[in-house]
Write a structure and sequence with these properties.
2 copies of one chain form a homodimer. With 147 residues, chain A is an alpha+beta fold. Helix content of chain A is 25%, strand content 39%. Chain A has a 7-stranded antiparallel beta sheet. The longest helix of chain A has 23 residues. The two termini of chain A are 25 Å apart.
């Protein structure tokens, strides 16, 4: 099993702002994909759709201002069964986001792509909270010939 | 041992353009850090300096238009002994860059940071080749409270 890891710092007044962007449909739609539906409550399912495909995520854990965990229940075969974990903490003026997309079976080329793409979505989350404007799909930053 | 993996596609006429940006001092200075000196020839050493610290890299492999490998010989302790590998291929109009920073002893918080930072430097490499203008240090994209 291999993991994608990232870290960003959001200049936000409190972890609550980042937590809300991860735990509401409107929040997720502001940085990941505009076509986000479902529910971000614990035990519920978030439904994310992109111009090409999408993901269904079960909300496994939702600890206010500290931690969010999703499990992928539908989507590309390499993603199904993996978990996406967010750990938040405050360091000075920054809310630090430690991100992990865990449980990839193999370090396939698609994982390389998703790692870079995750970085760009994390920068979109940071921009949403710092400037009010993210770049969710379909306005997402294109990184290669796959998207 | 754990690895940072990324993939970008550069809209470039040929892998040669990307290869040159990885194998000349001027090229590396255009996307990673303006303060790049030394030599990018096989067996030689590239010396990269940033406002806070830097890296010395030994050029282990340099296969024209296909592959470049560096070994970190000096820098932060977590980096020393790791390798940085670049594999290039042409897919339609894109030169695809498969990137791996291999051999981290542990998935420490600094590795999370470096993974996101690598993504931003790869996007800088892409921008340099597509638009003529990258964002090397000290003009690099800030991702968190560490840089």
């Amino acid at each position: 099993m291999v993991d994608i890891l990232h870290r960003v710092g959001v200049l936000a007044p409190a972890p609550r702002n980042v937590f809300d962007a991860l735990t509401t449909v409107e929040g997720v739609a502001g940085w990941w994909t505009e076509d986000t539906t479902g529910s971000a409550r614990e035990g519920d399912k978030l439904v994310l759709r992109f111009p090409a495909g999408g993901f269904d995520l079960e909300v496994l854990e939702r600890r206010p201002d500290e931690r969010v965990v999703w499990r992928v229940t539908d989507g590309p075969s390499e993603w199904v069964g993996t978990t996406i974990e967010w750990d938040l903490s405050q360091e000075g003026e920054y809310t630090v986001v430690l991100f992990a997309h865990r449980g990839w079976a193999e370090p396939v080329e698609f994982m390389h792509h998703c790692s870079t793409k995750w970085a760009s979505f994390l920068m979109s989350l940071k921009a949403l909270l710092e400037t009010g404007e993210g770049t969710p799909a379909p306005r997402d930053v294109k990184i290669d010939n796959w998207n």
